[in-house]
Design goal:
Blueprint (H helix, E strand, L loop, with lengths): L1 H4 L18 E4 L4 E4 L2 E2 H7 L2 H10 L5 H12 L6 H8 L7 H15 L8 H26 L13 H10 L5 H13 L7 H10 L5 H12 L7 H12 L5 H10 L17 H15 L5 H18 L8 H11 L7 H22 L25
Antiparallel strand pairs: 1-2, 2-3
Helix pairs in contact: 2-9, 3-17, 4-7, 6-7, 6-11, 7-8, 7-17, 8-9, 9-14, 9-17, 10-11, 10-17, 11-17, 12-16, 14-16
Length: about 375
């Protein structure tokens, strides 16, 4: 009993290894993020999301024939069943797209049963369908919420360009297509974060992959995880002008309030994903694609944060830059986190499959702090 009472509780399990993994690696002191040993900057520049998804899930860069089959299988599974679309039409129009995405992803499991999670063929086709259909769900959700009919996917477009087309019924520029694809790559995995841990916990029960991804989407929907880039845009709008940046930051620091998009649980220096996005911001600025006020506020935010918080190892993170980039290319704010999920599904699937290799159901313990051996008092005597 004495030993149990002295158990150390680590809030948030910070720093406690929950699994061994060969999927992604972070060095928070040096600002390094690697997928299967390759830096995320290299993959964002030289690869594309579907190749990166294969790398994460299957452990190696695909051979030419593997990549061709993978692309084809995903491309030809992007459409949604009519009953799924009809179900989406009856969901509340004021619901957040993340709730749509979670509900529809869960429902997909009834149309594509995959209960035998130990069957490799079943796992492959589940991965294909989840990666292929999530962009279609997100785009259809956005259009239905505004009274517009969903747009059917086009098989002649790239994965990223097809998503943009389904949203806006026009093809993106080459720069916007590259940005959309890089966004998915940059968000594809990030070691044992909250949603990935959720996926591994649910996966350890041998639940089907649609249930697993649905649980991870629910975890990602929280503002402390996936919703931070939405809050960055709201913060910039609240600040309003370059001149208001310094008093806004000083007010936040005085009240010890969180500044959205600043600081990271892991990185103590630059966020490598943010560095990639800074490059895109420069390109967009050269094309006058970012409104001048947003650009001035964001640059002043960087400068003031560096002055005030660099000594505390707090820097702008990927959410800070992704919010600015998404806004610049016309993505509705409420779709920021669903697009995050469209990329992160590759990591969730990779961790699910890795979990199954040496599976043991998660069953942590607790440190009990309540009362013991109490007498029951009848209701008339209370």
């Amino acid at each position: 009993m004495e030993e149990k009472l002295l158990m150390e509780v680590v809030p948030g399990l910070e720093g406690i290894p929950a699994a061994e993994s060969a999927i992604s690696y972070i060095d928070g002191e040096a600002g390094i993020l690697e997928y299967r040993g390759i830096t995320v900057e290299t993959l964002a520049e030289k690869s594309d999301f579907l190749e990166v998804a294969w790398l994460l899930i299957f452990g190696h860069l695909p051979a030419k024939d593997e990549l061709e089959r993978w692309r084809n299988d995903i491309t030809f599974h992007t459409r949604l069943k009519l009953k799924i679309l009809r179900m989406m039409e009856y969901l509340p129009e004021n619901g957040h797209p993340m709730h749509y995405l979670q509900a529809v992803t869960s429902a997909m499991g009834m149309y594509y049963p995959a209960r035998d999670t130990l069957d490799a063929e079943s796992r492959y086709w589940s991965a294909v369908r989840l990666i292929a259909k999530m962009p279609t769900i997100v785009a259809a959700c956005e259009r239905l919420k505004h009274g517009d009919a969903p747009i059917q996917p086009r098989n002649d477009l790239s994965f990223a360009a097809n998503f943009y087309y389904m949203l806006f019924e026009c093809e993106p520029t080459k720069l916007v297509e590259k940005i959309m694809d890089a966004m998915l790559t940059l968000h594809a995995d990030h070691t044992m974060n909250a949603s990935t841990f959720s996926a591994r916990v649910v996966g350890s029960t041998l639940a089907d992959p649609y249930t697993i991804v649905s649980s991870a989407i629910g975890t990602l929907s929280g503002p402390l995880h996936g919703g931070a880039n939405e809050e960055v845009v709201h913060m910039i709008e609240e600040i309003g002008s370059k001149e208001n940046v310094r008093p806004y930051i000083e007010r936040k620091l005085e009240k010890k309030e969180k500044i959205m998009g600043i600081g990271h649980r892991v990185y103590r220096t630059r966020d490598p994903r943010g560095e990639v996005l800074k490059g895109f911001i420069r390109e967009l600025a050269e094309h006058n694609a970012i409104d001048r006020n947003t650009l001035e506020i964001s640059r002043e935010l960087e400068a003031v944060v560096k002055e005030k918080l660099e000594a505390k190892q707090l820097h702008p993170n990927v959410d800070f830059y992704s919010g600015i980039v998404f806004k610049a290319i016309g993505i509705p704010t409420e779709l920021f986190t669903p697009i995050f999920a469209m990329g992160r599904v590759a990591g969730w699937l990779a961790h699910w499959m890795e979990q199954l290799k040496t599976n043991r159901i998660y069953r942590p313990t607790q440190k009990y702090t309540g009362l013991r051996a109490r007498l029951y008092i009848p209701v008339a005597e209370r």
